[in-house]
Every structure is written in C-alpha cells, then in structure tokens.
UniProtKB/TrEMBL annotation, chain A:
Domain CopC: 39-131
Organism taxonomic ancestry: Bacteria, Pseudomonadati, Pseudomonadota, Gammaproteobacteria, Oceanospirillales
InterPro entries with a match to the protein in the record: CopC_dom, Cu-Rt/internalin_Ig-like, Ig_E-set
Species name: Billgrantia aerodenitrificans
Annotated protein name in UniProt: Copper resistance protein CopC
Keywords: Copper, Signal
C-alpha cells in the first residue's frame, strides 16, 4: 500500500511551529542587532570642559559624532554675554565653531548650546572653562 | 534611576508629544476598530466616528503646539523663540517637520475616510492611506529614521497599539450594556483578536527595544534610556495581566450572565486605559529626553 505524504499539519503542530518561528524571528532580530548610537553625541569641546587656560582661546568649538544643527550658542563670562564675531548657527555639521569678537578677559566662562540632530532629536549641553589672570 | 531633570519647556514638549501620540493612536485605532467590527449598532458606530474625528483634530492641534514648543526650546526656552520664523523654519526643515507634514495629511484624511457619502472602496483606500501616513510619520523622527526594518517594527507596534487603545472606549460601553447576546459576542470577538494582537505587539516592540539597546539586556538597568524603558515594560506587564484577566475570566463571566462581572470588566478596562496613558507619557519622556545606550 502506498503511503500518502501530505503537507497539511495538524492544527496544534502548526501553532507550535508558528510560535517557534516567532521566537526564532525575535531571537534573530536581537542577535543581529548592531550597536546602535542613533543620536548625535558631543565628542569634544574646544577648550576642554573644565580647562584652566593661560591664554584666551581664539576660537570656541563643539564637535559631535554625527551632524547637528546648532540653534543656540551662548558664552557668558565675567563681563556678561560674550559677543561672537563668527556665528556658529548654521547648517547640519559635525563641528561648530564660534569666534569671540574681542579677546576674552581673564575669568570663568560658561558655554551653553542647543541644537537639533539629523534624526530630529533636540539636544542641549554646556561646559565651563577659565582663563587665568 | 538616572534623574531626568525636566525643565518647563521640556515638560511642555513631553506633554504635547504624549498628546499627539495619544490622539493619533486613538484616531487611527478608531478607524481600524470600525473596519474590524463593521456590525456595530448605528448609535455606537456614530459615537466611535465622532471620537475618531475629535482625536484627529486634537492630534493636529498637538502637532502644531509641538512645533512652537520645539522652536521655543531650541531658542533657549522662551516664548519669543516659539514665534521666531528662523527657528520655526529650522524645525520645519528637520526630521520633525517631516513628521509634522506626514501626520498632518494622515490625520486630515481620517475624517474623510469616515464620510458615509463616499463609496466604500474610496473610504477604505483613503483610510488606509491616512493610517500609513501617520505610522510613517512616527518612524521619521528618532532612532528608526533611515532604518527600514526598525521603521517597519515601529509601524507594526504602533498600529497594533492603536487598535488596542481605540477598542477600550467602545468595549467599556459594551460592557455596560451586556444584556444582549450581541454585546457579549463583541467582547469575546475582541478577546480572539487579542490572541493575535498581543504576541505581535510584544514581538515588534521587544525586538525594536533590544535593537535600540544594542542587543544588551543589561542596558535596561545601567542606562537612563533602559531604566525608563523598564518602567514602560512594567506598565506593559500590568496591561497584559489585565488583558489576560479580561480574556479568560471577566468576559466569560459576563457571557455567563454573572451579575457583578460587567462592573468588574468596566473597572478593568478603565485601569487598562489609565495604564495606556502612563505608557504613552513614559514613551514621550523617552523620546524627548534620553537616548539609547552609548
């Protein structure tokens, strides 16, 4: 007598298979997942955060690991808000720089910035540095 | 847990984003629920349609408010920046602007899809287009941008979540009038939907979360993003427990005609709705303030 092979599975078995498939798909997604750093992150500042400088910096800079559009860049010091000769607000870029209009006087300074990354996330940050007398 | 430190402008953006998410999910889900349960009594269908239209309107208002608040935040946190054309333009040109435009069109299409004067095929096509545009809008901002697989997972996750969220108000009403066999049948039918909906929802959301955390479950504890995600997961667990209780205990009790079961079911649905509101709020905080592991 010939044996008939059928592709149809009993209901319980097809459910078990569907569960296994879903579990395998989930595990695969988790395992193949690369390390994702979706947002932009600040990688360095110029001068460094907390730096105590002997000379006034000619340029202030923010560096990111992916492009960001800066919308606020404020520097405050012993004489109040520092006027910037070169405006860092502009297009998407990984590095944003600002040049003080005049040489910075000795004292404590704070840089505050805000921006929007390529993926639409808004970001903010700040750091301090000092210039010795 | 890492402190989040919400300033008033960030808190405003979180609330506006949560409002947009909740409204858009309810509007989309209302349409999906209507398509999945076509045999509703005319009065219930009219209430659902009205809720869908109101939710779509609220979603549009929240989107526009979010636009202003983003500009205000980017300008340093003040109302003058909220109406600064340069900052509004920057937000408009960004990924957030793309989300705004897609969601706006999608939300405007949903009431059109409910207009009974149009042929059914046109209504279904317009509704499907509206839902897809809104889901696509969600995927345009954040980690899913530029990643087709993650976008698909997010769209699937939110599409299913919207169905669940929008089903709660009609089910709450039905639970209050279960004298008819048709109502009990509707509750049981939603329970059968849940058997497919919940595993898919968890698979999509869980896979997306693991992907974003770099496949490292430890990130749930040692990163701010993971800790907030843990709060969301705890709330989701509560939601699942309630869903299971409804599916296997309360709805069968209602169908059997147990006198106190309808009130218990309504309470359970109300708590489910509260948990969903909290989940949306946590998701909005996640999207606004923290980033995945680094």
């Amino acid at each position: 007598m010939k044996r008939v092979v059928t592709l149809a599975l009993p209901l319980g078995q097809s459910r078990r298979n569907a569960k296994r498939l879903a579990l395998a798909a989930g595990c695969t997604l988790m395992l193949v997942s690369p390390l994702l750093w979706a947002h932009a992150h600040i990688t360095a500042t110029e001068p460094e955060a907390g730096a105590i400088l002997e000379q006034a910096p000619e340029r202030l800079e923010l560096r990111f690991d992916s492009p960001i559009r800066i919308t606020q860049f404020e520097v405050t010091g012993p004489e109040g808000t520092v006027e910037l000769g070169e405006d860092p607000l502009g297009p998407l870029a990984e590095t944003h720089g600002a040049v003080p209009a005049e040489t910075l006087a000795p004292g404590d300074y704070e840089v505050v910035w805000r921006g929007i990354a390529e993926d639409g996330h808004t970001m903010s940050g700040g750091y301090r540095f000092a210039i010795q007398e | 847990m890492a402190s989040i430190g919400l300033d008033p402008w960030t808190a405003g953006r979180v609330l506006a984003l949560a409002g947009f998410y909740a409204s858009a999910l309810l509007a989309m889900g209302g349409l999906l629920f209507r398509a999945a349960f076509p045999g509703q009594p005319p009065r219930d269908a009219a209430v659902l349609d009205r809720c869908t239209c109101v939710a779509a309107g609220c979603g549009i208002v929240m989107l526009l408010l979010l636009w202003l608040l983003q500009a205000a935040y980017l300008g340093g946190g003040n109302w003058a920046s909220a109406f600064n054309p340069v900052l509004l333009g920057i937000v408009g040109e960004s990924a957030q602007g793309e989300r705004l435009r897609l969601a706006l069109v999608g939300l405007l299409l949903l009431p059109v899809a409910l207009w009974q004067g149009a042929p059914r095929i046109v209504r279904y096509a317009v509704g499907a287009l509206g839902v897809v545009l809104i889901l696509l809008a969600f995927s345009r901002v954040g980690h899913t941008r530029g990643s087709p697989w993650q976008s698909v997972l997010l769209m699937l996750h939110l599409g299913l979540a919207s169905f669940w969220a929008a089903a709660l108000p009609p089910l709450y009403r039905v639970a209050g009038s279960v004298s008819s066999g048709a109502s009990a049948e509707q509750l049981q039918r939603f329970g059968r939907f849940g058997l497919l909906l919940v595993p898919l929802l968890l698979l999509a959301g869980g896979s997306l979360a693991m992907w974003l955390m770099g496949g490292r479950p430890g990130a749930l504890l040692d990163t701010a993003y993971g800790q907030l995600l843990s709060v969301k997961l705890t709330l989701v667990m509560g939601l699942l427990l309630l869903g299971a209780a409804n599916r296997w205990w309360l709805v069968p009790a209602v169908a059997r005609g147990k006198p106190e079961a309808p009130l218990q079911l309504r309470c359970s649905i109300a708590v489910e709705a509260c948990l969903m509101v909290m989940i949306v709020l946590v998701a909005a905080v996640l999207l606004t303030t923290s980033s995945p592991v680094r």
